[in-house]
Task: structure prediction
Amino acid sequence: MSDKFTRRRFMQSAGAAAYLGAGLALPSYSQVAAKDPDPAEVKSMARMFPGCCAYSFRKYLKNGQMSMQDFIREIVKMGCVGADMTVYWFKSTDPAYLNDLRHLAYRSGVPLSGAACGSSMVQASAEKRHEVLEDIKKWVDVTDRLGASHLRVFGGVLPHGATIKQGADWVVETMKPAVEYASKKGITLGIEDHGGVTQSADVCLEIMHRVDSPYAGINLDITHFIPTGSEDAYAQIKACIPYATNVHIRDHFDDGTPVDMDRVWRMFRDGGYKGYMSVEYEGKEDPMTGVPKLINKVKVLCQEYSTAQV
Result:
């Protein structure tokens, strides 16, 4: 890189005007270059942001007491950085409705961290797998219209008599063309570890290796892995972090055991994770009070364990 180019880049920044206005000399190439972080260091830096899944407010969304617009407004009050748009309660998929959600989020200063659909790819019938593929494509288009870059999908519950291997084969068969379609729109598909075929990290990782695309990842729910030993759940979380595209947060595992949140955040920090830590609240307390409490914990953890400036 030439000295001329570096000085030009600096001149184009807002800081250059302050230097010149104060009669100060521009910094030399060596001074500027010394502040540029090493690419490998940047890759390892963790950047974690507190988010919230609309699913957290399903009690109110189901009965119509809350709209998706209301959800966006609620998380603004809580200081959330990202909104995970669970599509179950969308009023419609009409462009006008989706545009309204996108515009409200923008005007509210809330990035849409992604969308989450219920499409399950474990289907014994080839015809059914084709239907699911078309459904995923539909939700990719919706995600694109929203201006988001991530869509959560499911592996699914195994049909009676089916093996894990069969289920993984069906998922890969469906996910490959789905990811190819999504990639053309710049959208990443994240398969959630959620029982059924994706109940273990080993199967999730096998699916990732076989789909083999930078637009495929794991929508990593930290509470769903089935433990087979005292540390197994944490080991499985850690194994999946390199493929994590979005993270769902609860403070208890599915069996009711409290999650060691500091331990989890340390693993994501050490793995250089960059993305959203989205609360998906399922506690007994009313979500209007329970969700803000969990989000406040997540906000503190994200600030404490992010190694890059956030």
